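Support request, priority: normal
Reporter: lab tech (M.K.)
Component: structure prediction queue

Hi team, I submitted a job for Heme lyase CcmF/NrfE family subunit from Sphingomonas ginsenosidivorax yesterday, and the status page still shows it as pending. I've pasted the exact input below so you can check whether something in the sequence is tripping the parser. The sequence length should be 637 residues. Please let me know if I need to resubmit or if it's stuck on your end.
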Amino acid sequence: MMAEAGLAALWLAGALAALQLVMAAMAVARDRAEVVAAVRPVAIVQGVLALLAMAALVWVFLDSDMSVKLVVENSHSAKPWIYKFAGAWGNHEGSMLLWVTILGLAGGAVAIFERSLPERTLIATLGAQAAIALGFYAFLLFSSNPFARIVPAPADGLGLNPLLQDPGLAFHPPTLYTGYVGLSVAFSFAVGALVTRDVGPAFARAMRPWVLIAWIFLTLGITAGSYWAYYELGWGGWWFWDPVENASLMPWLAATALLHSVTVLATRDGLRAWTIMLAVVAFSMSMIGTFLVRSGILTSVHAFAVDPERGAFILALLALYIGGALALFAGRIGTVRAGTTFDPVSREGGLVANNLLLSVILGIVLIGTLYPIVAAGFGVQLSVGPPFFNKAAGPIALLLVAVMAVGPLLRWRRDDVRAVILRAAGPIVAAVLVALALLPIWPGLLPWAGLSLAAGLAVASVAPLWKRNLRRTPLFTYGMVLAHLGIAVSLAGMASDSAFTKETLVAVRAGEAARVGPYTVTLDGITPVIGENWSALEARLTARRGDGSRILRPQLRFFANPPTNTNESAILTVLDGQLYTVLGQPDGQGRWQLRLWWKPFVTLIWLGGAMIAIGGLLSLLGRVRRERRVALRESWA
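Reply from support: The job had stalled in the queue. We restarted it manually and it finished. Here are the results:
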C-alpha cells in the first residue's frame, strides 16, 4: 500500500500545481484578494505532498518491496541500509522524483518566507514555479512512474550499480539537485518580475538569497562529486570534462555570473536586463543538464541511460519553459527601465567583465559538450575531451582570475586607473615573486600562470579587510573574502596537481617495491576479505617516506548483484599531498599490477571548494541579517 500512497500523493501534488498555476494567473490578471490569499497555502501543501511521495519511495526501498519495479531493478535485500536509502534516487525515476520534491519544497519555502516582494509579483513568481513543477509532475506520472508494480514479484532484486554503492550517493545528488532547483526559483522570480514589470533593486534583494542558496549547494555538489569520482573510479583524476560533469559546471558558471549581477542590481540599481537574462540562462543550463543525463544520448559513468522518448519529453519541457521565458523577455524588456550608469573603471565595470568572461567560458563548455552530440546526429563520430577544454577555457579562466583579483580593489561608480594600480601593488608583487620562484623548475605555461595568479588572488582576496575594524566588518564581506580566497586555494591545488603529479605503473611480487614521488611502496601481500555484499582481494602496501611508514590497503572487489568488478583505491593524505594507490589484475606470473600516484597539494582543490561554499553561507547569513535589521528599523519608524 505504501507505493499506492506515494503515487496518490504525487497525483495530488500535480493537481495542486495545476490549481496553483490557474489561481496565480487569475490573481495577477484580476487582482482578486481571495484568490491571492489562497496561492501561498496551495504552494505549501503541494511541497508537503511531494515530500510524502519521496518518503514513500524511500520506504519501499528500505523495506525491499520487490513488488515495485524500481526496487527490483535498483536494489537487493542483501544491500546495506544506506545503499537502499540512497538507492531510492540512484536511478532515473527516483532521481526525477527527488528533483520534483526539491522543486515543490522550494516553492513552498518561497510561499512561507518571502515577504519583501509586492504581493502581485510574488504570486506571479509562485505561478511560474507551479508551471515548472506541473511539467515535471506530468513527466513522472505519464513517462517515469517510480511506483509501478511488477507481477509476479521476483524473489529478489537485481542490485545497485556498484559504482554507486558509496556514501557519496547519499550526499551528492540531493546537494546538486538543490542547486539545480534553486535556480528554478531565480528563474521564477525573473518571470514574475517581467510579468508584473517590477524589475528593480527590491526584486533583486528578494531574489539574491535564493540565488546564493542554489550557488552554495551547486558548489558543494560539484566539489563532493569531484572527490567521489576521484577516489571511486580509480583513475587518479579529479575532473575529466565528462559531459555530465560539464552539465553541473554550466549552471554553476551561470549562477556565479547571476550572483554578481544580482548584487549590482540590489545595491547599485544596475544591470537590470543582464540580471533577468542570466536568471533565464542559469535555469536553462539546469534543464540542459537534466536532458543530457536522462535522454540516453550520453555514455557516462554519471548518466542514467534511458529511452529517447523520455529525453524528448524533457526536451519539450526545456523548449516550453526556456522558449516561453525568452519570448516574455523579448516582449517585456522594452518596459524595463535602465538602471544607474557607471564608468568602465569601477567595481560595477569589474563585475561586468567578470560576467562576460564567465559567459565566454560557459559558451566554450556548452559548445564542447553539445558539438559531439550534434555531430553524431549527422553520422559523424568525434569526441571533445580535456585537450580542447584546457586549451580553450584555460587561458580565459586565468584572465578571469586576474579580473577577480582586481575587482575588490575597485571603488563603486568610478575609479582612477593609477589609484587602482597602486592598490594592486601587493597582489602584483605576490604573483611576480611566485612566478620568478617557479622559473627554475618550469611546471608548464598554464600551471605556472595558475600558481602565480593564485598567489596574487590570495593577497587581493583579503584587500576588503585592509585598514578596517574587523569587529565591525559585515559578515557578508567576510563571506566574499573567504569565497575568493577559496578560489585561489583551489586554483593552487589544480595547478600543483597538473604540474607536479608523479605516476608509476608496475607489476610486483610480494616483497618487491616501487618508487613514486617521495615514497617507496612495498607490496607485503594479497589477502581475501569479505564485506557486507562483496568479496575482495586486498593488497597490504607499506609506504615509506624518510623514517616513517604507513599501511595502505587497496582492494579489487567482486560484487554478485549485479556481477561487477571494481577497484577500490587506498589514499594516504599528508600535509603536502596524497599518495593514491590502486590494485590491478595479476599477470599470471605471480606479479600484481599496482598503479601509484603522488599528487602534491591536490587536497587544496577540495579545501578551496569547501571554503567557497562556506564563504557563500557567510554571505547569505550576513545579507539576511542586514535585511532583517533594515525591516525592523522601518517597522519602528
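Residues 1-165 form one domain. Residues 300-305 have pLDDT under 50 and may be disordered. Let us know if anything else looks off. Ticket resolved.
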